[in-house]
Amino acid sequence: MQMTSLPEYTPLPGELVEFQVPDTVLAAAAAAPPHPAPPSHLQENHLRRRLANDRAGHPQAPWAGVHFDLPGRLDSGAMAAALATWVRRHTTLLTWFASDGSGFRRHAVTPDTVRFVAAPLGTYDSGEAIRDYLRARLVPATDPMRWPPLTAGAVLRQSSSTVFVAIDHAHTDGLSLQYVFDELRACYTAELSGTETDLPEVGSYVDFCRLDRERTALVTASAPEVARWADFLRAGSPVSPVDLGTEPGRMYRTRSLTMDLLDATEADAFARMCKAAGAGFSAGVLAALGICGHRLGDQTTYRALTVVHTRDEPRWERAHGWFINAVPVEFPVTGRTFTDILGGARKALVRGRNLSGITPMRLMELVPELGGLLGDVTQTLPLVSYVDFRHAPGAREWGDGNAGFLLGEGRAQGLHIWVNRLCGRTYLRIQYPDTPLARNGVRHLAACIRQVMADVAATGDIDANLEHRVNKSPSR
Q1: Is the pLDDT of residue 12 over 70?
Q2: Is the pLDDT score of 428 beyond 60?
Q3: Looking at the structure, do residues 171 and 237 belong to the same domain, yes or no?
Q4: Distance (Å, rounded) from C-alpha 199 to C-alpha 212?
Q5: What is the CATH number of the domain that holds 197?
Q6: Does residue 214 lie within any of the structural domains?
Q7: pLDDT (tens digit, 9 = 90+) per residue, 94-134?
Q8: For residue 104, how many other CB atoms are within 10 A of its CB?
Q9: 27 shares its domain with 167
Q10: Is the pLDDT reported for residue 470 higher than 60?
Q11: What is the DSSP letter of 126?
């Protein structure tokens, strides 16, 4: 699936329908009793940031979603029922949070409460008009402090219809969203045929949140994981390999750049090269980023935060929730070849994954004095995510179904780098602060990443020090 931020999204025009919750159901949800499972550390931090940003007058759009097409004119009543079936399947989507002054309390509606109805909103003559409606609607409609924390709708046309779903980030992540296309289609097909939905059972992210709290409570300030985090934070943040033109402590509206890196054949060759060196594709991505840091910014060490999943049991595999953590990676980029750099990246990734059981939020609870360092590092270091989506159910149909990820608008000071491997291609997306220098520098960075990975795919190894292959971005 292609990642698209909402300002970039322009669906085909048509009749807009929103799947809304009846007022009686909303009233019952607002009176839902407390649930004993606490929010996860990620959820609690997310909720605190959302409220703080609202108070500061910097509203965010912390939701994520998907869009896809179905053939013909959608049966909106059947899709409303299918959406209800799908929400009942994932218990985190049955919950909402309330602030009790010192923290947050989870509430949960019962599955039989869930109901959606199709509300016609009129015919839109342009995709831009639909996008403008969604930009105004999706943030208030995905509020984790009330139920439901998601919204969905469709654009109806005779030849095809577009379905979209948006969910507050407290309840979802990229690996969860990859299943929505297949699962919601299956629920819709079952509604049309009057049969039961044939989907595998899944675990509950609500249960995971309780287990997460229990496990992290056993981690003490003297744990080796805490020491490794502390050493990483105290080493500081290196200068970015490209000038972002940002001021310390200031957040900026974001822009994004998307670029194809490899076709399917090239991606297979890149993967074989990494495997032959004892590493995986994800380590290869980090090695490429490290080489670009050296070529563009003369960096001798690559430091970043990388996203890892926490789906450590089979029951979580298809569960919907926020099953991720950000962990530190650090490795030297002074080797002569890509293979030299790759070995260090592999070791750094293994070390980082060993820290996946402790979130940055738990770290601050244990060692409060690290809070300031953590804030600086998380705002300035790149956040790197690699995901192989080729094996998701229905992935080979994503292209025909015009399926894609949909993201809200945000603010940032540093870079967020995604590398996503699909069945036919591997692409790069970089989200960056919207400054003139960043726009220029990120183009150079993206070109460097593509060049390094394509050269490795073509030749099997490359000289890591060929700085002339990419022009450096100008300094301020």
Answers
A1: yes
A2: yes
A3: no
A4: 26
A5: 3.30.559.10
A6: no
A7: 999 999 878 999 999 999 999 999 999 999 999 999 999 99
A8: 20
A9: yes
A10: no
A11: -
Both 106 and 247 in one domain: the answer is no
- Average the pLDDT over 376-398 and give the result: 92
* Dist CA 32 CA 95 (whole Å): 9
Model confidence at 17, in pLDDT bands (50, 70, 90)?
Answer: very high
Are 390 and 283 contacting, i.e. CB atoms less than 8 angstroms apart?
Answer: no
204 and 273 belong to one structural domain: no
Q: What is the DSSP string of 187-203?
A: HHHHHHHT---------
At residue 466, the pLDDT reads 62
Assign 468 a pLDDT band (cuts: 50, 70, 90).
Answer: very low
Give the rounded distance of the alpha carbon of 353 from its chain centre.
Answer: 18
Question: CA 18, CA 404: separation in Å to the nearest integer?
Answer: 19
pLDDT for 316: 96
Give the CATH number of the domain where residue 452 resides: 3.30.559.30
The reply to whether 301 and 435 lie within a common domain is yes
Which two three-digit tokens encode residue 288?
Answer: 């490429």
Structural domain count, the chain:
2
Express the helix, strand and coil content of the chain in percent, nearest 5 each.
45, 25, 35
375 pLDDT exceeds 90?
Answer: no
254 shares its domain with 173: no
Q: CA geometry: angle at 408 spanning 199 and 361, to 5°? A: 80
Residue 474 pLDDT: 37
Q: Which two tokens stand for residue 319?
A: 């569960």
Q: State the Cα–Cα distance between residues 426 and 208, nearest whole angstrom.
A: 31
pLDDT in tens, 19-72: 999 999 999 999 999 999 999 999 999 999 888 888 877 767 789 999 999 999
Sheet containing strand 63-71, edge to edge, reads 2-5, 404-407, 63-71, 160-168, 150-156, 14-20, 117-124
**Quick count: other Cβ atoms within 10 Å of Cβ 359?**
23
Number of C-alpha atoms within 13 angstroms, CB side, residue 429?
A: 18
Identify the CA nearest to 459 among candidates 337, 289, 278, 280: 337
Amino acid at 249: G
Give dist(CA 383, CA 386) in Å, integer.
10
- Residue position matching structure tokens 């609870």: 365
Q: Domain containing 427: what range? A: 221-469
- Tell me whether residue 216 is in a domain: no
- Examine residue 215 and state whether it is found in any structural domain, yes or no: no
Do residues 118 and 158 both lie within one domain? yes
Q: Are residues 332 and 358 in the same domain?
A: yes
Mean pLDDT of the chain: 93
Point out which residues pair with 96 in neighbouring strands: 107
| Per-residue tokens: 318 | 């298809």
Q: Crossing angle for the helix pair 264-276 and 281-297, nearest 10 degrees?
A: 90
Q: Could you tell me if residue 391 is inside a domain? A: yes
- Tell me the two tokens of residue 457: 């795919």
Q: What is the reported pLDDT for 476? A: 33
Q: Would you call the peptide bond into 148 cis, given omega within 30 degrees of 0 as the criterion?
A: yes
